[in-house]
Amino acid sequence: MKHLIPTLSALIALVLAAGACTNATETAPDSTTAVSGATETIESTVTSQVPATTTTEATDAVTVDGDLPDDLVAAVATVLVWQRDDRSDAPVLPEGLAEHLATNPLSISDTVSIAGTTATIDGGQIAVVETDTGDVLLAADEGDGWQIVGADPAEGPPWYGEEPRMVMVLGSDARPGENQQRLRGDSIHLLTANPSEGNGTIAGFPRDSWISTPYGSMKFTSLMAGRGPQVMVDYVVDTWDLPVEGYVVTGFKGFEDLMRNIGSLPIDLPRAIPTQPWWPAFRAGEQTLTPLRTLEYSRTRKGVPGGDFTRSANQGLVMLAVLRLLQMNDIADAPEIISVLLDHAWTSLTPTDLIQLAATVHVLDAAEVENIVLPGALGRAGAASVVRLTPEADEILADLADDGVLEEVDQ
Fold first, then answer.
1. Which residue among 152, 170, 203 closes a domain?
2. Residue 203, strand partner residues
3. Can you spell out the DSSP letters for 235-251?
4. Whole-number Å distance between alpha carbons of 2 and 79
5. 3 state DSSP class of 139
6. Quick check: helix, strand or coil at residue 77?
7. CA 291, CA 310: separation in Å to the nearest integer?
């Protein structure tokens, strides 16, 4: 990996900005620390000829060779033989992927050379495999052996999981020495993506949104405190019936470290930002931000029209800029960058989820990813200043629940 700017999922590109508003000194996570994903160099050649189930005639064979683990090569070969000869036994595939490949088959010849990368992360292993015929396959091993879990056929749209993909990305407000997962969720975003269509949405929740929960009425930012990030997901699912798959939580140091690995960020700022007590002003227009300046921009809300509403929108701009930067690199680097990310974040997503989302970044059109902040009105709850989400916010979330993009709500 040349600069740690490789491909990631939309989720991973976007998570960088989500933690930018925190002030914590973060240590490596306990629950999702990844092991560095070195590329395997075991050379394997597998000739797969699966016995026919309804005839004594042998099925067509496909020879697959590549510098990848034997069992991963075998998993790829099984799929290719099944694609080439429907008399062979069907491989174990996600139902949606099997249906997709039935109408969007892979390109297959007698001999197929493959290359790819693997990484070991908490919960299993992940891989990206590319064939010499132009197909991309995603694989995961969650303890029962390698399984193909996604594909981008050379001729046809990709399938990277059931759509829309939907993940909560949270920035912890923990201070040094505090539990990163059990303090306030100070930055709250819902990320959606449709790999087959190349579109999606970044929806920011005002952190001071006043909500009613089983634990009492409170600001949304306070819900994670003492309870953990899953309660944030549960609230969104229960309140708006959104198919949220899980969460990613990051913090200040994780954001800063990842931005240092990525490097300076080209971005077009729509508005100038005044000088803050802690850092200088930002001018409007096209520019390149250092990792430190990217962090400062993502945290700024003082003296900015719209306050935290504008800050949430600015974080979305950073997410889109990171997405564009990551798209300049190769999908084969996705496993390693996921393992690096997990050194600085916590997640409830499975290895299958992570590699599918990582691949999604390559098929998204940044121009088709809408950046919004849910509308609300400023108000009071006792002595506290709060945001009361408007009925339009409910309409937006209902619209997103359908297909992950806004179609029926006028902004």
1. 152
2. 190, 372
3. HHHHHH-----EEEEE-
4. 31
5. strand
6. helix
7. 20
**Token pair for 197:** 């269509």
Residue with tokens 């913090």: 251
CA-based torsion, 197, 192, 393, 206: positive or negative = negative
Residue 51 has pLDDT above 60, yes or no: no
Amino acid found at 364 = L
Give the Cα-Cα-Cα angle 97, 102, 108 (nearest 5 degrees).
100
Q: Please tell me the distance from the alpha carbon of residue 168 to that of residue 248, in angstroms, as a whole number.
A: 6
Identify the bridge partners of residue 222 per DSSP, sorted by sequence position: none
Residue 351 lies in a domain: yes
In terms of phi and psi (left: phi > 0; alpha: psi -120 to 50; beta: otherwise), the region of 369 is: beta
Give me the half-sphere count of Cα atoms (radius 13 Å) on the Cβ side of residue 110. Answer: 0
For residue 411, tell me if it sits in a domain: no
55 with 102, same domain? yes
Query: Which among 136, 122, 131, 50 is positioned nearest to 346, based on CA atoms?
Result: 122
Residue 335: which of 14, 6, 79 has the closest Cα?
6
pLDDT higher than threshold 70 for residue 243: yes
Range of the domain at 50: 43-152
d(CA 319, CA 17): 6
- What's the DSSP call for residue 365? -
Are 270 and 284 within 8 A, CB to CB?
Answer: yes
Q: Tell me the backbone φ, ψ of residue 399, rounded to 5 degrees.
A: -65, -40
Q: What is the torsion angle, in degrees rounded to the nearest 10, for the CA atoms of residue 287, residue 292, residue 297 and residue 301?
A: -160
- Bridge partner residues of 148 (DSSP): 139
In-domain check, residue 294: yes
Prediction pTM value: 0.83
Residue finishing a domain among 152, 178, 206: 152
pLDDT (tens digit per residue) in 301-358: 888 888 889 999 998 999 899 899 888 889 998 998 898 888 888 899 999 999 999 9
* Domain count within the chain: 2
The Cβ of residue 157 has, within 10 Å, a number of other Cβ atoms equal to 15
- The CATH number given to whatever domain includes residue 360 is 3.40.630.190
> Six-digit token pair at 199?
């579109």
* CB neighbour class for 128 (10 Å; exposed up to 12, middle 13-18, buried from 19): buried
126: CB partners within 8 A, 6+ apart = 37, 118, 119, 138, 139, 140, 141, 334, 335, 338, 351, 354, 355, 358
The H or E element spanning position 204 is strand 199-205
* 249 and 231 assigned to the same domain: yes
For residue 172, what pLDDT is reported? 72
